[in-house]
Amino acid sequence: MHKKIVIHQPNTFPSLKVIQKIACGDVWVVYDDVQFVRREWQNRIMLRNLKNPLNRFWLTIPIEKTIYCMSKINEV
């Protein structure tokens, strides 16, 4: 018997594609033992206004600079 393994690095708010990927797999692996990358998707997301989809903005969770330097995602 074959199983589908889904691997994903965690981020603040997973997109619908990520949720769909998780739903299609048999096993979900959270890959959080990698380096946290500044200005990537781990701590921010782009949101759109429902009434005007062209109106977008970034929601960012602030991370203290001394914490994320050379740290793994699961440590931040």
List the helices and strands and how they pair.
Layout: E1 5-8, H1 16-24, E2 27-30, E3 44-48, E4 56-60, H2 65-68
Parallel strand pairs: 1-2
Antiparallel strand pairs: 3-4
Features:
76 residues; alpha+beta; two-stranded parallel ribbon; two-stranded antiparallel ribbon; 4 strands
Q: Could you describe the 3D structure shown?
A:
- By secondary structure, this protein is α+β, with helices and mostly antiparallel strands.
- It has one domain (5-75).
- Helix content is 17%, strand content 24%.
- It is built from 2 helices and 4 strands.
- The protein has helices spanning 16-24, 65-68; strands at residues 5-8, 27-30, 44-48, 56-60.
- Strands 1-2 form a two-stranded parallel sheet. A two-stranded antiparallel sheet has the order 3-4.
- β1 (5-8), α1 and β2 form a beta-alpha-beta unit.
**Numbering strands along the chain, what is their spatial order in the largest sheet?**
1-2
Radius of gyration: 15 Å
Q: Kindly state the percentage of residues in helix.
A: 10-25%
Low-confidence stretches: none
Order of helices and strands: EHEEEH
Strand content: 15-25%
Q: Give the tally of structural domains.
A: 1
Question: Total strand count, please?
Answer: 4
Secondary structural class? alpha+beta
Mean pLDDT: 83
Shape, per Cα inertia axes? flat
Discrete helix count: 2
The biggest beta sheet reads: 2 strands, parallel
End-to-end Cα distance: 37 Å
